[in-house]
Structures are given as structure tokens and as C-alpha cells.
Here is the input.
Amino acid sequence: MENIYDLVIIGSGPAGVSAALTARHRGKSALIVATSPEDSALWKAEHVDNYPGFHNAAGAEIVTALVKHAEASGVEFMRGRALAAADMGGVFGVSVGADFVQGRSLVLACGLNRAKPFPGEAEYLGRGVSYCATCDGMLYRGRRVAVVGLSAEAPEEAEYLRQIGCEVEYFDSDRARKYAVKGAERVTALTAGGVDYACECVFIFRAGLDPAALMPGLATGGGHILVGADMSASIPGIYAAGDVAGAPYQAAKAVGEGCVAGLAACKYVESKIKEEK
Ligand SMILES: Cc1cc2nc3c(=O)[nH]c(=O)nc-3n(C[C@H](O)[C@H](O)[C@H](O)COP(=O)(O)OP(=O)(O)OC[C@H]3O[C@@H](n4cnc5c(N)ncnc54)[C@H](O)[C@@H]3O)c2cc1C
Here is the structure.
């Protein structure tokens, strides 16, 4: 049987690391699925002076220390973008690019999703809009594709598409700020800064993903996942912590919530194991 982790945690920012560390200290296995550490909001903070224990530190320094601490505590990491999660009856499955991982509980610590979908993006999802080079790249070998790169991993993903033979045109926030996807039955073009680039697929790489799209059926409000006092979300076994669970958007608050979510997830897993016996 494939490995089933006690906790699968999405996000390696302060909230995700804190949840994972808490789980390890309760003797539970924990897998963090995350894109690059550079995609944590905290990485972008030049000076942080209100995070206990770090006086006038760069955000990147704090994120690096958090990730190192988790690694030293036996937290496992998988680098990649979680694309979808599903309740499979007692176990949660998470698609990470072309891979698949399973957890008895799920902690969503994926930060604030500041991005609005581009016009046409949702409409053409699966019909020429893709979030995954590994999953869909081969379908477009020898064809023109556009890559909108808005995450740290995007240049690497574009390079992969080139290597397998796609004709790649790369766009990022330096090149255009306004994008739209155009098509008929399927995608026919990406509009970037008012200019159309004809292509058969638009790969969009953002750090975050709308939590409602990640886990359909999860109660959300105002762009946040709705949680109870123990950070439990509306689906039993799922917890949320940090910016994704609401303001104030502060690293110390994210760490605190990660701890609460981690403890609650451990309790949930223990009760499930008892039930199974
Ligand atoms: C410029 C700036 C300055 C700031 N300054 C301060 C400050 O001085 N003090 C302070 O306390 N706070 C500050 N903040 C806020 C602080 O950075 C956030 O509150 C904190 O990082 C929230 O932690 P988090 O773990 O919830 O989310 P994040 O740190 O944003 O981490 C989210 C994680 O989720 C991952 N992720 C998201 N979606 C997916 C997916 N689908 N698949 C895989 N991985 C995914 C990302 O890769 C990342 O690892 C600042 C933020 C910014 C932007």
C-alpha cells in the first residue's frame, strides 16, 4: 500500500511549518507539499522586526530557518504545486503535478491567494488552460504554447516544456500586467497587454491556488477558508492556518494557528485510528 501520512500539509510558510513541527512532536508523520520557499509571502519581506526571536531579520532568513527546523525534525517535503484535493473516504488524496499523495488529515496553509483568475481562464480550464507542465506538456509537443510565469518555479517549468519540444513564449509581470485567455471550442490565443499571441495552450504558474478550487465543497468567505476555534474547516479532517484562514496577516499569528491546526489534526487522526481498531 502506498504511504499514507498522518498529516499532509500544503504550504511551507510559517503556518505550514508550525503545523508539521507540532505533528512531529506528537509522534505523527507529516508531509509538506509546497512550491518554492520563495513563494511564501514572508520571503518578500525585506525587514521583519515583529517576529519573536529574530531582530531586524530578512523574511527570507526566517523562512529558511523554519524549513531547516522542520527538516531536522523529520518533516518530509515534496516540492510541487498541489492542484486538487479530494476526500476519498477516510483518507485525503492530493494531486501534486503528476504525482499523488495521501494523508489521514489535511492542513491547508497555502497563504493568501491574491490573484484573480484571468478573463477566460476558468472557462478554458482543461480546454487549453493548464496549471501543470508535467501533466499536460506532452499534449502540446511541436505546438505553440504561452507560459504566464508568476511563481518562482515558473522559469523551470517553461524550460521543461521547451525540452519536450513545445514552442514556448514566456510572459511574466515585467512583460505584461493584464492577461486574458481567448478561444472558441479550445484556446486560440493569450492576450498580453492588449496584444494577442496565438497558441494552443496557456500554462499559468502562480504560487497560490484559490482554496475553493483546490478542495471543492470547502466553506469559504471573503477569500478565506472558514474555520472554527481549533482551525477545523467545514470538512472533517481538514484544517486551515495562517493567511488563508484570515487576517491579521502576520507571521506570528500564522505560526500560532499552525500549532493549533497541527494539534487538532493529530487528535483527529488518533480518533480515526481508534475507530478503525
Ligand atoms: C512584503 C511583505 C512584508 C511582510 N512583512 C511582514 C512583517 O514584517 N511581519 C509579519 O509578521 N508579517 C509580514 N508579512 C506577512 C507574512 O509574510 C504572512 O502573514 C505569512 O507569511 C503568512 O504565512 P502562511 O504560512 O500563512 O503563508 P505563506 O508564508 O504565504 O506561505 C504559503 C505557502 O503555501 C505554498 N503554496 C500555496 N499554494 C500552493 C499550492 N497550490 N501547492 C503547493 N504549495 C502552495 C507557497 O509555496 C508557500 O510555501 C509580510 C508580507 C509581505 C507580502
In short: The pocket of flavin-adenine dinucleotide is lined by residues 10-16, 33-35, 39-42, 44-45, 48, 50-51, 81-82, 109-111, 207-209, 242-244, 249-252, 254 (CB under 6 Å).
